[in-house]
């Protein structure tokens, strides 16, 4: 093959890849521009969640099945010929020969139709509660990933900002060591290089954490997750009484958690279980089948008329042996309902423990944030400046100077972690308060 043509083909393929990449960036840029805040990201994630659409279809299916269950069974039409003579199969030979038309209608036991419809409607209403739970869980997940991305990005920025200071310290140590001025030692030079290498490692780890968080956000936001400018949100608890250390009445906590979507979902299932118990009790009642028939006879062979026949009857299902069927169904319905009540009690205990744990964590984070802002950050900065000034004046140790600078950087990163964890804790508190009337999606 001619080499110019090969080279031309390669250039075309590269140009095509570049155009595709440019188109993808252009397509993602408008969406990224729209997602300027955490609220926009959560709204986008909710709008594109296929589970919510599937839940609506499941609810519609249960509604349709409920409407079908409330209707009577279809009537049965019966056609036939009775008592045909086998010697001639003549329809007018025998008086008993007739053409029959019958219609039968089954009537289920008691109020089973209405109860089955109510049971399916309760299960359908559960889907609405499960969608609220899904929205609250999805908002929490997106918020936590958003905060993970912000923490990694902001920590990298803090380290990059202080990296120049460490480079200056390294240059000062290297200059002193080469000129044999001051108390510079070889181990000081090695220590400076080691700390710079550690900073590079921290930057690499933080870059990995940010990429992982953005990749997981891509599950909900698509390619726009890679172009987001994440910022620290300002979340507030849906229940202001949770801020602080004052005790909350047990009744207030029970009321807050009792309206959680996951609890309401179990309430709908318990309603369906109670209806199932009533449905099992109705099966002790008899069921009926009403049937009517008309028998047509032809005139006799001598021409005399024969009257037609009309039949009417009722069939009754008698539950005479309930021990192996009705009793067991009722027992199973009671057991299922009690199991759901137990599950609800366990869920409330879990939610209560999570709520109180998050509340206690928020109180401690507020204390630590106040301590860092009022004293610790200032004291760490003063210590780093004093240690560096002492070393510059040949009155201090290099290890102490660089350790003080690292401690100051760690303190600023820890203050950032406290701010992020505080927002994360508030997001979790609001998840536990998802049924609160003031609880809005962050």
Automatic annotation (TrEMBL):
Signal peptide stretch: 1-32
Record has Calcium as a keyword: no
Coiled-coil segments: 189-216
Annotated InterPro entries: MdtP/NodT-like
Keywords, comma-separated and alphabetical: Coiled coil, Signal
GO MF annotation terms: efflux transmembrane transporter activity
Record protein name field: Heavy metal RND efflux outer membrane protein, CzcC family
Organism of origin: Pseudohaliea rubra DSM 19751
């Amino acid at each position: 093959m001619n080499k110019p043509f090969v080279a031309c083909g390669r250039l075309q393929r590269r140009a095509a890849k570049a155009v595709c990449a440019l188109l993808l960036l252009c397509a993602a840029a408008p969406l990224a521009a729209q997602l300027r805040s955490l609220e926009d990201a959560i709204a986008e994630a909710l709008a594109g969640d296929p589970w919510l659409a599937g839940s609506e279809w499941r609810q519609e299916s249960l509604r349709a099945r409920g409407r079908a269950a409330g209707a009577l069974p279809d009537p049965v039409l019966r056609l036939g010929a009775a008592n045909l003579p086998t010697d001639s199969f003549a329809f007018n030979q025998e008086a008993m020969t007739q053409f029959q038309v019958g219609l039968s209608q089954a009537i289920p036991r008691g109020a089973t139709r209405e109860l089955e419809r109510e049971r399916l409607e309760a299960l359908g209403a559960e889907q609405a509660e499960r969608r609220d739970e899904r929205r609250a869980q999805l908002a929490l997940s997106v918020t936590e990933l958003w905060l993970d991305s912000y923490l990694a990005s902001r920590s990298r920025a803090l380290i990059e900002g202080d990296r120049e200071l460490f480079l200056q310290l390294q240059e000062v140590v290297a200059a002193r060591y080469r000129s044999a001025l001051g108390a510079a030692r070889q181990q000081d030079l090695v220590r400076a290089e080691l700390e710079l290498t550690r900073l590079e490692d921290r930057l690499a780890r933080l870059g990995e954490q940010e990429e992982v968080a953005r990749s997981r956000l891509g599950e909900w936001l698509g390619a726009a997750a890679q172009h987001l400018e994440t910022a620290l949100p300002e979340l507030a608890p849906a229940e202001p009484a949770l801020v602080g250390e004052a005790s909350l009445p047990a009744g207030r906590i029970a009321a807050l958690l009792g309206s959680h979507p996951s609890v309401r979902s179990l309430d709908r299932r318990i309603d369906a279980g109670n209806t199932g118990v009533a449905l099992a009790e109705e099966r002790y009642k008899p069921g009926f089948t009403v049937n009517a028939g008309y028998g047509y006879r032809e005139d006799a062979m001598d021409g005399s008329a024969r009257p037609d026949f009309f039949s009417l009857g009722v069939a009754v299902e008698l539950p005479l042996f309930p021990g192996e069927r009705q009793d067991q169904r009722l027992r199973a319905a009671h057991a299922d309902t009690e199991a759901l009540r137990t599950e609800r009690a366990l869920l409330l205990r879990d939610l209560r423990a999570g709520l109180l744990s998050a509340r206690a964590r928020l109180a401690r984070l507020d204390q630590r944030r106040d301590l860092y802002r009022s004293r610790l950050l200032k004291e760490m900065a003063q210590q780093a400046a004093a240690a560096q000034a002492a070393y510059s004046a040949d009155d201090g140790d290099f290890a102490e100077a660089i350790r003080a600078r690292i401690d100051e950087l760690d303190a600023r990163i820890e203050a950032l972690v406290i701010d992020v964890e505080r927002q994360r804790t508030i997001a979790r508190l609001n998840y536990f308060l998802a049924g609160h009337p003031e609880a809005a999606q962050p």
